[in-house]
Amino acid sequence: MSKSTYTYCFIGLTLVLLLSFFLNLSLGSVHIPINEIFEGFTGGELSKKSWEYILLDYRLPKAITAVIAGAGLAVAGLLMQTLFRNPLAGPFVLGISSGASLGVALYILGGTAIGISSIYISGKWGLILASSVGSASVLLIVLSVASRVRDTMALLIIGLMVGSITSAVVSVLSYFSKAEELQRFIFWSFGSLGDLSWRGVYILTGCFVIGIFLSILSLKSLNTLLLGDMYAKTLGLKFSRTRLTIIISTSLLAGSITAFAGPIAFIGLAVPHLIRQVIPTANHVILLPAVMIGGAILMLLCDTLAQVPYSQYTLPINAISALLGAPVVIWLLVRKKKVLF
Asked: Which of 95, 192, 207, 280 could pair with 163 as two cysteines, CB 3.0-4.6 Å apart?
Protein backbone atom coordinates (compact mmCIF):
# COMPACT_ATOMS: atom_id res chain seq x y z
CA MET A 1 0.00 0.00 0.00
CA SER A 2 1.23 3.50 -0.80
CA LYS A 3 1.61 6.30 1.74
CA SER A 4 -1.46 8.09 0.37
CA THR A 5 -3.54 4.89 0.76
CA TYR A 6 -2.54 4.67 4.42
CA THR A 7 -3.55 8.31 4.84
CA TYR A 8 -7.00 7.62 3.34
CA CYS A 9 -7.39 4.56 5.62
CA PHE A 10 -6.62 6.63 8.72
CA ILE A 11 -8.96 9.41 7.63
CA GLY A 12 -11.73 6.83 7.09
CA LEU A 13 -11.10 5.14 10.46
CA THR A 14 -11.08 8.51 12.26
CA LEU A 15 -14.41 9.50 10.68
CA VAL A 16 -15.96 6.16 11.69
CA LEU A 17 -14.60 6.67 15.22
CA LEU A 18 -16.21 10.12 15.51
CA LEU A 19 -19.51 8.78 14.14
CA SER A 20 -19.43 5.85 16.60
CA PHE A 21 -18.64 8.22 19.49
CA PHE A 22 -21.58 10.54 18.86
CA LEU A 23 -23.89 7.56 18.13
CA ASN A 24 -22.91 6.12 21.51
CA LEU A 25 -23.74 9.42 23.22
CA SER A 26 -27.04 9.75 21.39
CA LEU A 27 -28.56 6.28 21.79
CA GLY A 28 -29.68 4.63 25.00
CA SER A 29 -32.82 4.28 27.10
CA VAL A 30 -33.32 8.03 26.45
CA HIS A 31 -32.61 9.33 22.94
CA ILE A 32 -30.68 12.62 22.78
CA PRO A 33 -30.55 14.21 19.27
CA ILE A 34 -27.01 14.68 17.96
CA ASN A 35 -27.61 18.40 17.33
CA GLU A 36 -28.43 18.76 21.05
CA ILE A 37 -25.14 17.00 21.90
CA PHE A 38 -23.22 19.50 19.77
CA GLU A 39 -25.14 22.30 21.51
CA GLY A 40 -24.06 20.95 24.91
CA PHE A 41 -20.40 20.64 23.88
CA THR A 42 -20.27 24.19 22.52
CA GLY A 43 -21.48 25.74 25.77
CA GLY A 44 -25.14 26.06 24.87
CA GLU A 45 -28.11 24.83 26.92
CA LEU A 46 -29.89 21.58 26.05
CA SER A 47 -33.68 21.58 25.54
CA LYS A 48 -34.16 19.40 28.63
CA LYS A 49 -32.24 19.66 31.92
CA SER A 50 -32.36 15.85 32.32
CA TRP A 51 -30.50 15.44 28.98
CA GLU A 52 -27.63 17.58 30.31
CA TYR A 53 -27.29 15.37 33.41
CA ILE A 54 -27.46 12.13 31.36
CA LEU A 55 -24.95 13.40 28.80
CA LEU A 56 -22.30 14.96 31.05
CA ASP A 57 -22.52 12.75 34.15
CA TYR A 58 -23.22 9.34 32.61
CA ARG A 59 -22.83 8.91 28.85
CA LEU A 60 -19.73 11.06 28.27
CA PRO A 61 -17.55 9.30 30.93
CA LYS A 62 -18.90 5.96 29.67
CA ALA A 63 -18.03 6.77 26.05
CA ILE A 64 -14.53 7.93 27.02
CA THR A 65 -14.09 4.72 29.04
CA ALA A 66 -15.17 2.72 25.97
CA VAL A 67 -12.56 4.50 23.81
CA ILE A 68 -9.80 3.90 26.37
CA ALA A 69 -10.79 0.28 27.02
CA GLY A 70 -11.08 -0.60 23.31
CA ALA A 71 -7.85 1.15 22.30
CA GLY A 72 -5.88 -0.13 25.31
CA LEU A 73 -6.95 -3.77 25.01
CA ALA A 74 -6.33 -3.77 21.25
CA VAL A 75 -2.79 -2.40 21.72
CA ALA A 76 -2.12 -4.90 24.53
CA GLY A 77 -3.25 -7.72 22.21
CA LEU A 78 -0.98 -6.48 19.41
CA LEU A 79 2.00 -6.33 21.79
CA MET A 80 1.44 -9.88 23.05
CA GLN A 81 0.93 -11.33 19.54
CA THR A 82 4.20 -9.74 18.39
CA LEU A 83 6.19 -10.66 21.52
CA PHE A 84 5.12 -14.32 21.39
CA ARG A 85 4.77 -14.35 17.57
CA ASN A 86 1.50 -16.16 18.16
CA PRO A 87 -1.77 -15.00 16.50
CA LEU A 88 -3.78 -16.56 19.38
CA ALA A 89 -2.06 -14.50 22.10
CA GLY A 90 -4.14 -11.78 23.78
CA PRO A 91 -3.73 -9.13 26.48
CA PHE A 92 -4.62 -11.58 29.24
CA VAL A 93 -2.25 -14.39 28.23
CA LEU A 94 0.11 -13.49 31.10
CA GLY A 95 -2.64 -14.14 33.66
CA ILE A 96 -3.39 -10.45 34.34
CA SER A 97 -7.17 -10.93 33.99
CA SER A 98 -7.08 -14.09 36.12
CA GLY A 99 -5.18 -12.18 38.82
CA ALA A 100 -7.81 -9.42 38.77
CA SER A 101 -10.58 -12.06 39.00
CA LEU A 102 -8.83 -13.65 41.98
CA GLY A 103 -8.56 -10.29 43.74
CA VAL A 104 -12.26 -9.57 43.21
CA ALA A 105 -13.21 -13.15 44.17
CA LEU A 106 -11.28 -12.83 47.44
CA TYR A 107 -13.01 -9.49 48.05
CA ILE A 108 -16.55 -10.66 47.29
CA LEU A 109 -16.51 -14.42 47.95
CA GLY A 110 -13.68 -14.66 50.50
CA GLY A 111 -15.85 -13.72 53.48
CA THR A 112 -17.83 -16.93 53.32
CA ALA A 113 -15.23 -19.28 51.90
CA ILE A 114 -12.38 -18.32 54.24
CA GLY A 115 -14.63 -17.87 57.25
CA ILE A 116 -14.17 -14.14 57.80
CA SER A 117 -16.43 -11.22 57.04
CA SER A 118 -15.81 -9.54 53.71
CA ILE A 119 -14.16 -6.14 53.87
CA TYR A 120 -16.32 -3.65 52.03
CA ILE A 121 -14.83 -0.39 50.81
CA SER A 122 -17.33 2.13 49.49
CA GLY A 123 -19.10 1.03 46.34
CA LYS A 124 -17.15 0.33 43.17
CA TRP A 125 -13.79 1.46 44.62
CA GLY A 126 -13.56 -1.74 46.64
CA LEU A 127 -13.83 -3.80 43.45
CA ILE A 128 -11.32 -1.56 41.67
CA LEU A 129 -8.82 -1.84 44.53
CA ALA A 130 -9.23 -5.63 44.80
CA SER A 131 -8.86 -6.06 41.04
CA SER A 132 -5.77 -3.80 40.97
CA VAL A 133 -4.09 -5.70 43.81
CA GLY A 134 -4.82 -9.03 42.07
CA SER A 135 -3.44 -7.80 38.72
CA ALA A 136 -0.36 -6.25 40.36
CA SER A 137 0.37 -9.47 42.29
CA VAL A 138 0.33 -11.55 39.10
CA LEU A 139 2.43 -8.89 37.35
CA LEU A 140 5.11 -9.16 40.06
CA ILE A 141 5.15 -12.95 39.64
CA VAL A 142 5.47 -12.65 35.84
CA LEU A 143 8.25 -10.04 36.11
CA SER A 144 10.11 -12.25 38.59
CA VAL A 145 9.83 -15.22 36.23
CA ALA A 146 10.74 -13.13 33.17
CA SER A 147 14.06 -12.14 34.77
CA ARG A 148 15.01 -15.83 35.12
CA VAL A 149 13.48 -17.41 31.99
CA ARG A 150 15.04 -16.47 28.66
CA ASP A 151 12.71 -18.51 26.45
CA THR A 152 9.70 -16.38 25.47
CA MET A 153 7.52 -19.44 24.81
CA ALA A 154 8.29 -20.74 28.32
CA LEU A 155 7.09 -17.38 29.67
CA LEU A 156 3.86 -17.78 27.67
CA ILE A 157 3.24 -21.24 29.16
CA ILE A 158 4.04 -20.01 32.68
CA GLY A 159 1.54 -17.18 32.21
CA LEU A 160 -1.14 -19.68 31.17
CA MET A 161 -0.31 -21.86 34.20
CA VAL A 162 -0.61 -18.88 36.57
CA GLY A 163 -4.01 -18.20 35.00
CA SER A 164 -5.05 -21.82 35.57
CA ILE A 165 -4.02 -21.69 39.25
CA THR A 166 -5.93 -18.47 39.92
CA SER A 167 -9.00 -19.83 38.07
CA ALA A 168 -8.89 -22.94 40.26
CA VAL A 169 -8.81 -20.83 43.44
CA VAL A 170 -11.75 -18.75 42.15
CA SER A 171 -13.69 -21.98 41.48
CA VAL A 172 -13.11 -23.19 45.05
CA LEU A 173 -14.19 -19.82 46.48
CA SER A 174 -17.30 -19.86 44.25
CA TYR A 175 -18.25 -23.37 45.45
CA PHE A 176 -18.34 -22.30 49.12
CA SER A 177 -19.86 -18.85 48.65
CA LYS A 178 -23.45 -17.68 49.15
CA ALA A 179 -25.82 -17.25 46.21
CA GLU A 180 -25.97 -13.45 46.46
CA GLU A 181 -22.16 -13.14 46.66
CA LEU A 182 -21.76 -15.44 43.66
CA GLN A 183 -24.30 -13.37 41.73
CA ARG A 184 -22.35 -10.17 42.49
CA PHE A 185 -19.12 -11.76 41.28
CA ILE A 186 -20.76 -13.02 38.07
CA PHE A 187 -22.15 -9.55 37.33
CA TRP A 188 -18.62 -8.11 37.71
CA SER A 189 -17.26 -10.77 35.33
CA PHE A 190 -19.74 -9.63 32.63
CA GLY A 191 -17.79 -6.37 32.32
CA SER A 192 -19.29 -2.88 32.45
CA LEU A 193 -18.28 0.51 31.09
CA GLY A 194 -20.87 2.50 33.09
CA ASP A 195 -20.91 3.56 36.74
CA LEU A 196 -17.48 5.17 36.41
CA SER A 197 -17.11 8.65 37.94
CA TRP A 198 -14.98 11.37 36.38
CA ARG A 199 -12.31 10.70 39.04
CA GLY A 200 -12.18 7.08 37.90
CA VAL A 201 -11.93 8.17 34.25
CA TYR A 202 -8.98 10.46 35.10
CA ILE A 203 -7.08 7.66 36.89
CA LEU A 204 -7.80 5.21 34.05
CA THR A 205 -6.64 7.81 31.51
CA GLY A 206 -3.36 8.28 33.40
CA CYS A 207 -2.63 4.52 33.34
CA PHE A 208 -3.61 4.39 29.64
CA VAL A 209 -1.27 7.25 28.68
CA ILE A 210 1.72 5.64 30.47
CA GLY A 211 0.97 2.25 28.85
CA ILE A 212 0.68 3.76 25.35
CA PHE A 213 3.85 5.83 25.90
CA LEU A 214 5.81 2.65 26.74
CA SER A 215 4.30 0.97 23.65
CA ILE A 216 5.43 3.83 21.42
CA LEU A 217 8.96 3.55 22.84
CA SER A 218 8.94 -0.13 21.76
CA LEU A 219 7.78 0.42 18.16
CA LYS A 220 11.19 -0.12 16.53
CA SER A 221 11.90 -3.13 18.75
CA LEU A 222 8.49 -4.68 17.87
CA ASN A 223 9.34 -4.57 14.16
CA THR A 224 12.71 -6.22 14.90
CA LEU A 225 11.07 -8.95 17.03
CA LEU A 226 9.10 -10.15 13.99
CA LEU A 227 12.40 -11.40 12.56
CA GLY A 228 12.84 -13.88 15.43
CA ASP A 229 14.67 -13.73 18.76
CA MET A 230 18.08 -14.82 17.46
CA TYR A 231 18.08 -12.53 14.42
CA ALA A 232 16.85 -9.63 16.57
CA LYS A 233 19.77 -10.15 18.98
CA THR A 234 22.26 -10.16 16.10
CA LEU A 235 20.84 -6.78 15.05
CA GLY A 236 21.74 -5.41 18.48
CA LEU A 237 18.30 -5.53 20.11
CA LYS A 238 18.49 -5.53 23.92
CA PHE A 239 16.05 -8.41 24.23
CA SER A 240 15.54 -8.57 28.02
CA ARG A 241 14.92 -4.83 28.35
CA THR A 242 12.56 -4.83 25.36
CA ARG A 243 10.58 -7.80 26.71
CA LEU A 244 10.32 -6.16 30.16
CA THR A 245 9.04 -2.89 28.65
CA ILE A 246 6.41 -4.73 26.60
CA ILE A 247 5.25 -6.77 29.61
CA ILE A 248 4.95 -3.66 31.83
CA SER A 249 3.07 -1.78 29.10
CA THR A 250 0.64 -4.67 28.52
CA SER A 251 0.10 -5.16 32.24
CA LEU A 252 -0.59 -1.46 32.81
CA LEU A 253 -3.12 -1.35 29.97
CA ALA A 254 -4.89 -4.68 30.60
CA GLY A 255 -4.67 -4.47 34.41
CA SER A 256 -6.07 -0.93 34.75
CA ILE A 257 -8.87 -1.55 32.22
CA THR A 258 -9.86 -4.79 33.96
CA ALA A 259 -9.82 -3.01 37.32
CA PHE A 260 -12.19 -0.25 36.15
CA ALA A 261 -14.35 -2.04 33.54
CA GLY A 262 -14.11 -5.72 34.44
CA PRO A 263 -12.62 -8.52 32.32
CA ILE A 264 -13.50 -7.69 28.68
CA ALA A 265 -12.42 -10.49 26.38
CA PHE A 266 -12.23 -10.76 22.58
CA ILE A 267 -11.28 -7.13 21.77
CA GLY A 268 -7.56 -7.64 22.40
CA LEU A 269 -7.44 -10.88 20.44
CA ALA A 270 -9.60 -9.92 17.46
CA VAL A 271 -8.91 -6.24 16.69
CA PRO A 272 -5.25 -6.69 15.58
CA HIS A 273 -6.44 -9.39 13.12
CA LEU A 274 -9.31 -7.19 11.88
CA ILE A 275 -6.94 -4.25 11.30
CA ARG A 276 -4.35 -6.44 9.50
CA GLN A 277 -7.09 -7.51 7.08
CA VAL A 278 -7.94 -3.87 6.33
CA ILE A 279 -4.36 -2.52 6.44
CA PRO A 280 -2.05 -5.39 5.44
CA THR A 281 1.26 -4.32 6.96
CA ALA A 282 3.68 -5.60 9.60
CA ASN A 283 5.04 -2.13 10.35
CA HIS A 284 4.03 -1.32 13.94
CA VAL A 285 4.44 2.42 13.33
CA ILE A 286 1.28 2.09 11.19
CA LEU A 287 -0.34 -0.85 13.00
CA LEU A 288 -0.33 0.61 16.52
CA PRO A 289 -2.39 3.78 15.84
CA ALA A 290 -4.67 1.83 13.47
CA VAL A 291 -5.28 -0.83 16.13
CA MET A 292 -6.02 1.88 18.73
CA ILE A 293 -8.67 3.48 16.50
CA GLY A 294 -10.11 0.08 15.50
CA GLY A 295 -10.38 -1.08 19.13
CA ALA A 296 -12.10 2.16 20.15
CA ILE A 297 -14.61 1.87 17.27
CA LEU A 298 -15.48 -1.76 18.06
CA MET A 299 -15.90 -1.07 21.78
CA LEU A 300 -18.12 1.97 21.15
CA LEU A 301 -20.35 -0.01 18.77
CA CYS A 302 -20.54 -2.94 21.22
CA ASP A 303 -21.47 -0.59 24.07
CA THR A 304 -24.13 1.11 21.93
CA LEU A 305 -25.73 -2.26 21.19
CA ALA A 306 -25.33 -3.45 24.80
CA GLN A 307 -27.39 -0.47 25.96
CA VAL A 308 -30.33 -1.77 23.79
CA PRO A 309 -31.44 1.66 22.42
CA TYR A 310 -34.92 2.87 23.49
CA SER A 311 -35.22 0.23 26.25
CA GLN A 312 -34.28 -0.10 29.93
CA TYR A 313 -32.23 -3.27 29.38
CA THR A 314 -28.42 -3.48 29.42
CA LEU A 315 -26.74 -6.59 28.04
CA PRO A 316 -23.29 -7.89 29.12
CA ILE A 317 -20.59 -6.08 27.11
CA ASN A 318 -18.52 -9.29 26.99
CA ALA A 319 -21.29 -11.18 25.17
CA ILE A 320 -22.01 -8.35 22.72
CA SER A 321 -18.32 -7.88 21.78
CA ALA A 322 -18.01 -11.58 20.89
CA LEU A 323 -21.39 -11.74 19.09
CA LEU A 324 -20.58 -8.67 17.00
CA GLY A 325 -16.86 -9.18 16.40
CA ALA A 326 -16.48 -12.94 15.88
CA PRO A 327 -18.63 -13.15 12.70
CA VAL A 328 -16.71 -10.20 11.22
CA VAL A 329 -13.34 -11.87 11.90
CA ILE A 330 -14.59 -15.17 10.41
CA TRP A 331 -15.96 -13.41 7.32
CA LEU A 332 -12.71 -11.51 6.75
CA LEU A 333 -10.56 -14.65 7.18
CA VAL A 334 -12.77 -16.64 4.77
CA ARG A 335 -12.65 -13.76 2.28
CA LYS A 336 -8.86 -13.34 2.51
CA LYS A 337 -8.32 -17.13 2.86
CA LYS A 338 -5.31 -16.70 5.17
CA VAL A 339 -4.16 -15.13 8.44
CA LEU A 340 -2.01 -12.05 7.89
CA PHE A 341 0.61 -11.99 10.65
From this structure: 95
